[in-house]
Structures are given as structure tokens and as C-alpha cells.
Q: What sequence folds into this?
């Protein structure tokens, strides 16, 4: 019969406790339990924890048994709390409890011979019933952790392969749960792993010495008997042998050097609260035997990357994409770039822009070449002649050296003048092409950077979704344990996890590709890592920001005026139009030259001076020879009379090409007009969709939480959860895409306008808003000021 400790007079509650030993973690857990019990029960009962009733064991079953017996026989105590690993497992196997006992935490009760029953009970605060697992033993309430060691070892083998495993546990656990080791060893043998189980006392050296020589990996259970320095020495000793380690206790061990663990850090707060609530329910009159025993432990694969590098372990992409990585400091990027940094750096280092700069520089020299034909030309020449003596005469010596200087100057050449004028306009075209390319590079750099941010967000969402699926798998396993669901439901979640892991890998690949695209634009090593800075709608450098411009786009009428203003700015700033204007001016000059070719001659002046040396002229003939200086000046004019119709064809072709360029200009004007208006409509729609997408994501997330709660209670089927999770994932992705999609749309607007806000000063950004306001007023629309 249960021992009731509640009556009208029983206001004093005295509690004893038993710990496995004096480990720091156990002592901290007991202090936290006492504090939580006092907080929860202090207003209703006079709770005390007598100092002489708080016992410490020696991490053995015998030590725990003695302490538990003393407390059970003590009439001054109303309840006993047993904390640790050895003690809870031992006391939960007893059926002679004379007062309420709460044990935490019990490992794998179902397969360890510890009493457990499935009961159906009403759902607190809601209609319906749920199945729960309870101890079924009078005066026994425990907190259970069903640990699937085989699955954890399978995860360990995904990180690094092995076939021979040693499992180290705290001394006393093997005695408390004698069937646990052999059962796990048999199950592991079926997966191709030969496992040995050993107990670790307080001697690390003995533990290391007891390991088989051929061990390839070690799984570590909780080691509360070891001080932190000793535990780290144990881990270091294993790693010095290049033996990978895996913690069965949790993430805390990974922070202390263990390679990996599948559990998150032990959630002490929830464990402490469960113990306090169990005591509270017992004091209210509930039977300890009817209290739920299951304690959900969330899973999160954690890998210590420093340890992995030390051991030469190289986890696969599939593992890395779902693991929390600790100690990956060497992979932390030293370069940190923002959206503003990227667009500015791209204009300085992009190779395509560097090529365009060279093209413009070469064009400047082409203009100089065209101009050179209009300037004076000068040349010098020299000639040495040696002839036969018999051929020498008064006019030509046997040896003669001639030097000359020639000067030419075009008086007028329509072709040369037109060529120079045309090249100057073509140079303007090259400069506008460079500006057009610069705008394209800026737009591409901005969009590529935003693609990186979007890809990182998508990767994070997919990672969180994988975590939700893992949590749902844990719920499914609990449902299987209480008989609400079958093995098929667990397998369905395992299949979903595989799909989610693939989605994470795909998202990671998309992020890597986006980062490579940014590095290419910045002329960096393509896989050079960099850290990003989040970009948002509140970026102060964005003047064309739909939050700032809200008064100008709040209504269809205002938005129409806004589009007109932006279109006017776009047409004024468009390098495409300026390029065509320069091409038209060049073609007009070519047409004029073609017309003048019929009647305007080419006129030039040519002057030559030549000096002749008289070496070799006989003295008798020298007096008869002419002087040694010759000069000549000539003027030439030419005009083509007939060239087979070529001049007429050139004139006609020039006119047609001019007409074509004029048409191209008007077509380009329409394209720019369409582009800016379409971009503004798109940006306006994406801006309006941001809040809607967020609302949808919030609603879908809340719906998923409600459905998961119902699923954990057995009220809904797996299909409802899968549908809610898929809907939540889609809504989260849509919400992320809404923000980054709008920012990309803003970049498209600025490219269409031909000016990027990141290259405007603060005064220029303010001036834009002032000009916009003036435009609205000038056109009679003043409602935007209300």
C-alpha cells in the first residue's frame, strides 16, 4: 500500500538524497534539485533537506544500497531522491520501497530489467487520453532515458570506420545493469562491430592499460567519478594512440576533447524540474507508480574539429552538414565583407572592368592617331653611294652622300578631318560601354552577394528543418514504445531524415557556388572563404528603399508618379542612350564626309631639302659641278571624278546606317522605359509580399508546433505532421526569399536607373528625395505629404 504523506497536519516535508559519489556534476545536480524543490513547494510546505540525510556513495551498488536502506528505514524522512547513474538503476529494480523514491536518471529501463508499464490517462487540460509509460511499482517514480546505443555507435561509424570497439562506463553500472553490456554487444555484433565493456574507476592509467591492444575506437559513458583534469587525461591518452572517441553522455564531453557525440548537452534544467514536479505530484496525493517516466533527450550530432584534425578524421559532407562543429577556428574566414564592400571592390578589381579600362586607354591612342594625320609630318633620310671611277663625272663623284629633310602638311582633307571627328565620338562610345559594363558588374556583384546571403539562410532553414525531423523521429520512437504507433512510422521519419540531409547538402552546394561567383567578380581565389554581413531593408546607404519611399508609393496614383520620375532619371543617366548618341554623331559626321567627297578636294603641301656631298669629283671637273644643296616645294590638290559609283554608294550607306542608329536609339529608349517601370512594379510587389510571407511563416510555424504537440500525445497521425512540417518549411523558405528577392529587385531598379545608391553621398541620397518631392509637387500631386 502506498505511503501517503499528505494530511491536514503534515506541513513539514523532510527529504533525504543519495548520490553515486562526490563528482562535481552530481553535487551540482543535487544542489539544483534542492533549489528547484524549494522554489516549487516552498509556498505550500515546509520543505527541508537535513544535512545528515544527504548521502554520498562510492559509485558502487553496495555503497548505494547501504545509503538507500538507511534512508528508507529513517522514520523522520518523507521521501528519498536518488541521483546519478548507478544508484537510480539499482533502486529502480527494488520492489520493497517503504516510502516514495524518485530516481534520476535510469538508463534504458525496458531492456535492462527495470519495471515499466504502459498506462492510458487523461491529457492534462485537454479532452482525450494519452498513453504513458510508468514504473507500476509502489512508491517508485523514476526519470528514464531510453538510449539506443546501437544507433549511436552506427553514427560514430559514419564519422570514422571501425570494427573493434571498447565501451568504457563508470564503475558500478555493470553491476547495476548486468544485462546491458551483453545485450548491446550482441546487437553490435550483428552490425559487424566487436565490442568489449570495461569499468573505469578513479585510475585513468588502469583504464588505459585495460584496453585491448587492437581496439580501433572507444565509446565513453558518463564519468562523474573523474575530475575534469583526469577525464581530459583519459581522452588525451586515447587520442595519443590515434583511437577516436565518442561520448554516450553528451555534448559537454565533446567540449572537453572527445571527438563526437549524438546528444546535446545534458539539459539539467528540465531534469531538475521533472524531479521536483514528481515530488510535488506525490505530495498532492498521486501514486508514484502512476507518474510518467519518459524523459525526452534531444539529439544533435556534435563534432570537435580540432580533435578530428588531430586524429586525421575527415567526416563526410553528409555528416558535416547536420553536425554542430566545435573548434573549427582554422576555418573561420579572416575576410569579412558587406554588400557595400562587394559593390565597391568589384569596381576596382574586376577583370572584365580592367579589360574595359584597357580598351578605353587604347581608344585614346586611336584618337591621337587619327589626329596625327592633320598635323605636320616630317622625315629625314640619308643615302651613301659608291660608283665605279670610270662613271664619275662633274655631276656625280665616285663617292657621294646625300641627306634630305621632308615636311608635309595637309591643307585640307575631308577624309582625315572626318576620321578624327568620328574617332572622338567612338571614344565616347567606348567610355559609355565601360560605364555600362561597370553598372552591369555592380548589379551582378550585388545580386551575387545577396544570393550568398539567401543561400546561407536557406541552408540554415534546411538545417533547422532537419533538426525538427530528428525531434519528430524521437517522438515517433516514444509513440512506438507506448504502442501508439508501429515500426513503419519510425522508418517513415528515418526516410524523411535522409531526404532532409540531402536538402541540406544541396543547400550547402548552392551556398558554395554563390560564394565562388562573388569571388570571381572580386578577382579573388575562387574558394577563398569570407564572412558576410547581413543586409536588410534598413540599410542606410539605400536611397531607393521602399520603406523610406513609402509616401511616394503608398497608392496607385503616387506610384505612377514615382515611376515617371524614376524613368526620367533613368533616361538621363542611361549609358546605353549616351553610347547611341555618340554613335549617331559619329555617323552624322561620316555622312557629311561622304557628301563632301563629291566636291571638296584634298589639298596638301610637300617641301623637300636635300644636301649632297661631293666626295670623289675630280678637281678639274669640280668647278663645273652644281652646288650641293637642292630644295623643292610642291602643292597638290586632288578630287575624285569617277570611282565606279563607290562614292554614291558610300553616301547612301552612311544615310541608311544613320537612320538605323536613330531607330535603335528610340528602341533603346523604350526598352529602358519598360525596364525601369517593370523593375519598379516587381520591386513594389516583392516589398508588399515580405510581410505576407512572414505572416504565412509565423502561422505555419505555430501550426506545426500545435500539430507536433498533438502528435506527441497520440492525437494525430504522422501524415498531419509531415504536411504541417512541409508547409512550415515552404513558408520559411518563402519568407527568406521574399526579403532577399526584394533586395535583388532593388538592385535591378538601380541598374535600370543607371545609378547605384552605394556610390551616392549622403547629401546626394537626400537630394534624390528632395527632387522626388519637387517632381510630385510640380505635377500637382501633393497627397504624399499627408
A:
Amino acid at each position: 500500500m502506498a505511503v501517503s504523506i499528505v494530511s491536514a497536519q503534515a506541513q513539514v516535508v523532510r527529504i533525504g538524497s543519495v548520490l553515486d559519489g562526490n563528482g562535481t556534476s552530481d553535487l551540482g545536480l543535487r544542489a539544483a534539485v534542492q533549489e528547484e524543490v524549494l522554489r516549487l513547494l516552498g509556498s505550500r510546505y515546509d520543505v527541508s533537506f537535513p544535512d545528515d540525510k544527504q548521502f554520498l556513495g562510492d559509485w558502487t551498488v553496495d555503497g548505494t544500497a547501504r545509503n538507500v536502506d538507511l534512508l528508507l528505514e529513517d522514520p523522520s524522512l518523507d521521501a528519498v531522491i536518488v541521483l546519478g547513474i548507478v544508484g537510480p538503476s539499482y533502486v529502480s529494480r527494488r520492489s520493497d520501497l517503504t516510502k516514495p523514491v524518485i530516481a534520476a536518471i535510469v538508463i534504458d529501463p525496458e531492456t535492462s530489467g527495470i519495471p515499466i508499464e504502459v498506462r492510458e490517462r487523461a491529457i492534462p487540460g485537454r479532452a482525450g487520453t494519452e498513453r504513458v509509460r510508468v514504473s507500476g511499482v509502489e512508491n517508485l517514480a523514476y526519470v528514464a532515458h531510453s538510449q539506443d546505443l546501437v544507433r549511436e555507435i552506427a553514427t560514430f561509424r559514419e564519422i570514422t570506420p571501425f570494427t573493434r570497439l571498447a565501451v568504457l562506463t563508470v564503475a558500478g553500472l555493470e553491476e547495476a545493469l548486468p544485462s546491458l553490456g551483453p545485450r548491446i554487444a550482441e546487437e553490435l555484433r550483428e552490425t559487424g562491430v566487436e565490442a568489449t565493456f570495461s569499468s573505469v574507476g578513479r585510475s585513468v592509467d588502469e583504464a588505459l592499460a585495460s584496453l585491448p591492444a587492437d581496439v580501433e575506437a572507444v565509446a565513453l559513458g558518463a564519468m562523474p567519478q573523474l575530475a575534469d583534469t583526469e577525464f581530459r587525461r583519459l581522452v588525451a591518452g586515447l587520442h595519443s594512440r590515434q583511437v577516436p572517441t565518442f561520448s554516450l553522455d553528451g555534448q559537454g564531453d565533446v567540449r572537453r576533447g572527445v571527438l563526437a557525440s549524438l546528444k546535446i548537452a545534458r539539459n539539467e534544467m528540465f531534469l531538475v524540474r521533472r524531479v521536483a514536479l514528481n515530488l510535488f505530484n506525490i505530495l498532492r496525493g498521486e501514486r508514484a507508480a502512476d507518474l510518467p517516466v519518459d524523459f525526452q533527450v534531444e539529439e544533435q550530432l556534435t563534432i570537435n574539429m580540432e580533435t578530428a584534425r588531430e586524429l586525421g578524421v575527415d567526416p563526410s559532407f553528409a555528416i558535416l552538414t547536420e553536425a554542430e562543429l566545435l573548434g573549427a577556428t582554422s576555418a573561420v574566414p579572416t575576410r569579412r565583407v558587406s554588400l557595400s564592400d562587394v559593390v565597391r571592390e568589384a569596381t576596382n578589381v574586376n577583370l572584365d572592368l580592367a579589360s574595359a579600362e584597357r580598351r578605353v586607354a587604347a581608344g585614346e591612342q586611336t584618337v591621337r592617331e587619327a589626329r596625327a594625320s592633320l598635323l605636320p609630318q616630317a622625315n629625314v633620310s640619308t643615302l651613301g653611294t659608291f660608283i665605279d671611277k670610270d662613271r664619275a663625272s662633274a655631276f656625280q663623284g665616285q663617292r657621294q652622300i646625300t641627306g634630305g629633310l621632308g615636311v608635309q602638311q595637309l591643307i585640307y582633307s575631308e577624309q582625315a578631318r572626318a576620321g578624327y571627328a568620328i574617332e572622338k565620338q567612338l571614344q565616347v562610345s567606348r567610355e559609355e560601354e565601360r560605364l555600362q559594363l561597370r553598372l552591369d558588374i555592380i548589379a551582378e556583384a550585388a545580386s551575387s552577394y545577396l544570393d550568398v546571403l539567401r543561400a546561407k539562410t536557406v541552408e540554415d532553414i534546411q538545417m533547422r528543418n532537419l533538426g525538427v525531423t530528428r525531434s519528430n523521429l524521437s517522438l515517433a520512437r516514444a509513440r512506438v514504445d507506448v504502442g501508439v504507433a508501429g515500426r513503419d512510422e519510425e522508418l517513415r521519419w528515418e526516410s524523411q531524415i535522409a531526404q532532409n540531409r540531402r536538402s541540406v547538402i544541396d543547400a550547402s552546394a548552392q551556398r558554395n557556388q554563390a560564394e565562388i561567383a562573388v569571388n570571381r567578380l572580386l578577382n579573388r581565389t575562387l574558394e577563398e572563404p569570407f564572412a558576410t554581413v547581413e543586409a536588410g531593408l534598413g540599410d542606410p546607404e539605400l536611397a531607393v528603399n521602399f520603406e523610406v519611399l513609402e509616401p511616394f508609393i503608398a497608392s496607385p496614383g503616387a506610384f505612377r508618379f514615382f515611376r515617371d520620375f524614376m524613368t526620367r532619371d533613368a533616361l538621363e543617366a542611361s549609358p546605353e542612350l549616351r553610347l547611341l548618341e555618340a554613335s549617331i554623331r559619329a555617323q552624322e559626321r561620316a555622312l557629311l564626309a561622304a557628301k563632301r567627297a563629291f566636291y571638296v578636294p584634298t589639298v596638301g603641301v610637300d617641301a623637300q631639302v636635300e644636301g649632297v656631298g661631293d666626295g670623289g669629283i675630280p678637281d678639274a671637273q669640280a668647278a663645273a659641278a652644281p652646288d650641293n644643296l637642292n630644295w623643292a616645294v610642291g602643292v597638290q590638290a586632288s578630287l575624285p571624278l569617277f570611282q565606279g559609283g563607290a562614292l554614291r554608294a558610300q553616301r547612301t550607306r552612311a544615310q541608311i546606317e544613320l537612320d538605323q542608329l536613330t531607330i535603335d536609339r528610340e528602341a533603346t529608349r523604350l526598352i529602358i522605359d519598360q525596364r525601369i517601370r517593370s523593375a519598379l512594379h516587381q520591386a513594389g510587389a516583392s516589398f508588399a509580399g515580405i510581410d505576407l510571407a512572414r505572416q504565412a511563416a509565423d502561422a505555419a510555424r505555430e501550426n506545426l508546433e500545435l500539430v507536433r504537440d498533438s502528435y506527441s500525445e497520440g492525437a494525430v497521425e504522422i501524415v498531419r505532421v509531415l504536411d504541417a512540417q512541409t508547409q512550415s518549411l515552404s513558408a520559411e523558405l518563402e519568407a527568406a526569399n521574399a526579403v532577399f528577392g526584394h533586395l535583388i529587385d532593388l538592385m535591378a531598379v538601380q541598374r535600370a536607373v543607371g545609378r547605384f545608391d552605394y556610390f551616392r553621398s549622403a547629401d546626394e541620397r537626400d537630394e534624390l528625395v528632395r527632387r522626388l518631392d519637387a517632381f510630385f509637387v510640380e505635377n500637382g500631386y501633393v497627397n504624399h505629404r499627408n
Notes: The chain is about 55% helix and 15% strand. Residues 550-578+656-785 form a domain with the Outer membrane efflux proteins (OEP) fold (CATH 1.20.1600.10). The longest strand covers residues 399-412.
